[in-house]
Amino acid sequence: MMDIRKLTDFAVEKTCALLAIPSPSGCTERAISWLEAEFTALGCDHWRSVKGGLIVDFGGRDDANALLLESHCDTLGGMVAQIKANGRLKLTNIGGMNANNAEAENAVLLARNGKEYEGTLQLIDASIHVNGDYNEKKRSWDSVEFVLDEDVSSPEDVRALGIGVGDFVCFDPRTRVTESGYIKSRYLDDKLSVGMLLALAKYLRDEKITLPRRTYAHITVYEEVGHGGCASVPAGVTEALVVDMGCVGEGLDCTERMVSICAKDSSGPFNREIVLKLIDAAERAGAKYAVDVYPHYSSDVATTLRAGSDVKHGLIGAGVYASHGYERSHREGVENTLKLLISYLQAEN
Description:
The chain is 27% helix and 31% strand. By secondary structure, it is of the alpha+beta class. Strands 1, 2, 3, 12, 13, 14, 15, 16, 17 and 18 form a 10-stranded mixed β-sheet that branches. Strands 5-4-9-6-7-8 form a 6-stranded antiparallel β-sheet, with no helix packed on it. β6 (106-110) and β7 (116-123) form a beta hairpin. The protein is globular and about 65 Å long.
């Protein structure tokens, strides 16, 4: 008999471990290698796409009506764009990383020689006792700089450390799980969902479940820059279901304690048949859910469709507040998402 609370504990534990591995889009090798070992331990066959994503085979009976789950392990981040005359670094953002909420964040620079260097993103001339324009200065990637925690004052000093343009900068996720059940971290979008896919694999193994449909997962590595799900759809797949973050904010019904079922995002409406089946599965499982429309959102399945895949599509996710910033969800959101996912996958379609 499934213990949903223990399964939720497992999902949160694995999420925290994955959050500790830096993986901005384009620099995901360590995270994917870790996930390969985790899925192997859970008895799942898997293989890598040429682009570096991970395809996981959960098994199932009907090969001709297969389901593809899509989640991503790549995150926002930064990249060195210029070594400045004073030895500080101008960054360019990776994905939707915003200078406003990255300011004063600690980060690690991954140098091309394999070394790692700590530093902090700061407003240029960040001392408020010196800079009279501190409050009025508009924050952008042109007005902030990365300050290395090394004794550097020139480009030559920086290059001597093995640092160059194109090196990745990974911001501290600052992961916390509170006694009251809140999960706070950068990059819950979408590592929280990947943690839940690991929990799904554990559930199928422990309960010896064979799903009615052949089910795969594609853990993509370029979602945050817009082309994660555009390829590598296995043969026989007729439906793609994204497991990503559910939006929480003004005008939406979802909270961090719920699972969100998306009816429409900025790419257009989701397949109505799938949306209704997801609602039915949530109600059968007793999962607390909301159906919402996301005004500024796109996902892996949008690129799957634009690439020409002839599939039905849907999207669910645990409620996440403050998306692309310091995000917050809750254990109950994870639990309700797992309930819905397990109920949906075991339905005869």
